[in-house]
Amino acid sequence: MWKKLTCVCLLTIFNICDAGYIAAVVEYSSLNEPTPNQTIERNVVNYVNTIESLKQHNVQIVVFPEYGLTDLVQDPENYSIIVPPLYTSDFSNASDALLRLSNAAREHGMYVVVNVLEQDHDNSTNNTLYYNTNVVFASNGTLVAKYRKINLFQEPKLTPGNELVTFTTDFGKFGLMTCMDILYYNPSQTLLDGTNVTDVIYPAAWNSYLPFYLSLEVQVGYVLANKVNLLAANINEPSNGTGGSGIYLNDGTVLRRVITDKAATSVIFGNVDTVINTSDFILSGFDLLSGGDITRERLANYKRLRDFDHQAYTFRSLDLSKENISEPLCHDCFCCNFNIVALQNETNSSEVYKLLAYSGQTIFDSKSVQIQLCGVVGCLTDDVSTCGEIPSSAYTTKFRQISINSTYMPRNPQAFFRPMSLKGDLLTIDNATYSEVVDEDSLDEVILNFTVTTTSDNVVLFGLYGRDDSSIVSISALFIGVLFLIQNIF
Fold this sequence. Notes:
By secondary structure, this protein is mainly beta. The chain has helices at about 35-55, 95-110, 185-190, 215-225, 475-490, and strands at about 5-10, 20-25, 60-65, 110-120, 125-135, 145-150, 165-170, 170-175, 200-205, 210, 230-235, 245-250, 255-260, 265-275, 305, 315, 325-330, 335-340, 350-365, 365-380, 400-410, 415-425, 430-440, 445-450, 460-475.
């Protein structure tokens, strides 16, 4: 039986104009049946039913998550299908899954984006290759786009893609990326470079890691930094730390977002405005937690994974007895300036907040990556190893303002920054603004600013995150083990 479905409609408080469209995102709780064919068949039935149900709301495009049809499988062979060439409209000789999804798109006049495991024959080696692939059916059922995930994550039997993919509709130009792609310059930034893409489609099976890689945190940071609409559909497996989906507007508005600790399928939809707002981003919006009040839920069953190399970071304790705090913090040559206003009558002296900064290498999925980060972080105790954890009871200290400034020199085109924020309910901090401005006095520097000026509490993290993908080096599991041993010895 299909798991619980939560369907939420956005109340019309935004002006619906000719430039907009109605989008739906499905956070799907995948079914896992005894055989691969049965698994795909049952999930396709649920997809088709969802598409049919969305027609009454005039939805024009719907996005399903990564691995939704197959569940999170390690061996693609028995779950993979052959994807016909682009612009195929007759799927009678294709897999039953593609045939039924194409028919549903045509019958209900809706663009449908689905993630599949694709098999393809390599004539040069006479081998079968497997890909993590997003396919897009137009409202007439024709296959108009196929994107193969470039940055695989713990998918050893798959082959990475190597092409950027966009497609054009009568309501906007869309780009495609999948899950871990969002953290890599290619395709998350190259997709937007001179392509006139206004909207990004983002299926994911994202495992959240405290405190820098929570699903909603990463999605919002991407929108704030890039001025695009984002349709983010995550698979729902909260017991594995997977889940968190949203529809975000290019001015930073959170149209809808969902995160839950229940194994349930949620459908969110609303009107997306495709007119670009070139002003600073302002993040505000609405929340959904399985149809309930998100502030009353503890998300106790949402697994909290962690990736926090605290031994390498520079920390400084925040003195909450001061109302106005203005301090710089550096790690090597990377510096951030903090301006913080704490509400004196609403600070909790038993709570610990620290400033942190770091510039250096980190190990990410068997790769050594250059990152820079700084921020204000909540800690369970004065021990820095507890920083960035979710407290058992919400932080009660209230900040009237948090502002972080930094600069970077974009000498390498593969370097980029994004803002990051996190609260104890796994949401982001609303009503924040982010900007990147070229320094008029030094044209080779970019000034970064991330600020919130409305009262914020339950703050776990507020900061900046940067990467330089030109320095990525693949390393062996043996080297990672040796490095881990050395770090723990010294």
